[in-house]
TrEMBL record:
Protein source organism: Yeosuana aromativorans
A Pfam match: FBPase_C
One BP annotation, GO: fructose metabolic process
PANTHER family (alphabetical): FRUCTOSE-1,6-BISPHOSPHATASE-RELATED, SEDOHEPTULOSE-1,7-BISPHOSPHATASE, CHLOROPLASTIC
Taxonomic classification: Bacteria, Pseudomonadati, Bacteroidota, Flavobacteriia, Flavobacteriales
Gene3D superfamilies found in the cross-reference section: 3.40.190.80, Fructose-1,6-Bisphosphatase, subunit A, domain 1
GO CC terms: cytosol
Chief location category: cytoplasm
Location of the Fructose-1-6-bisphosphatase class I N-terminal domain: 7-199
Textual note on the cofactor: Binds 2 magnesium ions per subunit.
Cofactors: Mg(2+)
Name of the featured protein: Fructose-1,6-bisphosphatase class 1
Compartments reported by the entry: Cytoplasm
Subunit (UniProt): Homotetramer.
Length: 335
């Protein structure tokens, strides 16, 4: 039973001992994410009021228009993470290359690298639909005392020490794991404090929601087409219901609470789908597994994939265990 008054700050301190490296540094890192989340939340909430929405004019590495809030969120997270002597490198979906932090860490003593998608689903901002921030934390693999290298960022997802997201929705929540289950905290905007509202979050094993951009249907692999038809078929507890926000964090969050599966398959338009392994799929997969769910590229466990480049994309199927396994069954059968 949740202690209704437990704040995120208290929770971090109380659970520090359970973390295997338990030096307090990871706690401090999560605290800096908490701080950046509040700052970004404040700005996201103002989006309808001020002339901040719309393209900033830049085009990011994926060739998409960047919006001003993406840039703002990117800057805030990088700034906040750089300010404490914990992080040695950051990779962001909005940056072409990773950032080596050496201004404050001249002797390269910091241990952690952070990968972020500062504002995922940002095309939804203009229409007042929920967006999110996704983060993923690893210990560096190169020796302390040397600058970070690409190797520190291209680690398999199963090496993550923490991951989470912030959803800027009807209420703002921070949901994260350090490998001991998933806990969700809701922001009380009046006083700027996150409270533990969703302890030990779990995906129901089965669900009735499938979340996929069906506009891409004709381009999907046969296995995915067959799965969608299966969901729509009137038989047993089917047809299922379709819910797609187009904002991964929000679709994932809803499916974790209600039971469902999110799919961004490969298609004849995008041979690896759209989502990025390092900034989106790995952190969500870690959370999913910690919440008794599953994440796969249709055949392989996401967390076991060896990344080869920073901005690599993979097909993504994630959510309630039995539903993800059903998708995998359809993929195998269509081979
Ligand atoms: P982004 O990182 O450019 O915002 O793209 C990721 C988003 C996900 O949040 C969402 O699930 C997906 O793109 C929606 O894509 P589509 O419009 O192709 O369905
Ligand atoms: Mg994104």
């Amino acid at each position: 039973m949740a202690n209704k008054k437990q704040t995120l700050g208290e929770f971090i301190i109380e659970n520090q001992a359970a973390f295997k490296y338990s030096s307090g540094e990871l706690s401090s890192l999560i605290n800096s994410i908490r701080l950046a989340a509040k700052v970004v939340n404040h700005e996201v909430n103002k989006a309808g009021l001020v002339d901040i929405i719309g393209a900033a004019g830049d085009v990011n590495i994926q060739g998409e228009d960047q919006q001003k809030l993406d840039v703002y969120a990117n800057e805030k997270f990088i700034q906040t993470l750089t300010n404490r002597n914990i992080v040695c490198g950051i990779a962001s979906e909005e940056e072409d290359d990773f950032i080596s932090i050496n201004s404050q860490d001249e002797n390269h003593q910091n241990k952690y690298v952070v990968l972020i998608d500062p504002l995922d689903g940002s095309s939804n901002i203009d229409v007042n639909v929920s967006v999110g921030t996704i983060f993923s934390i690893y210990r560096r693999v190169t020796p302390i005392g040397t600058p970070v290298t690409i190797e520190d960022f291209l680690q398999r997802g199963n090496q993550q020490v923490a991951a989470g997201y912030v959803v800027y929705g009807t209420s703002t929540m921070l949901v994260y794991t350090t490998g001991h289950g998933v806990n969700g905290f809701t922001l009380n905007p009046a006083i700027g404090t996150f409270y533990l509202s969703h302890p030990n979050m779990q995906f129901p094993e089965n669900g009735h929601i499938y979340s996929v951009n069906e506009g891409n249907y004709i381009h999907f692999p046969q296995g995915i087409k067959n799965y969608i038809k299966y969901c729509q078929k009137e038989e047993g507890d089917r047809p299922y219901t379709s819910r797609y926000i187009g904002s991964l964090v929000s679709d994932f969050h809803r499916n974790m609470i209600k039971g469902g599966v999110y799919l961004y398959p490969k298609s004849s338009l995008n041979s690896n789908g759209k989502l990025r392994l390092l900034y989106e799929c790995n952190p969500m997969a870690f959370l999913a597994e910690q919440a008794n769910g599953k994440a796969s590229d249709g055949f392989t466990r996401i967390l076991d994939i060896q990344p080869t480049e920073l901005h690599e994309r993979v097909p993504f199927v994630c959510g309630s265990k039995n539903m993800v396994e059903k998708v995998e069954e359809f993929m195998r059968d269509a081979q």
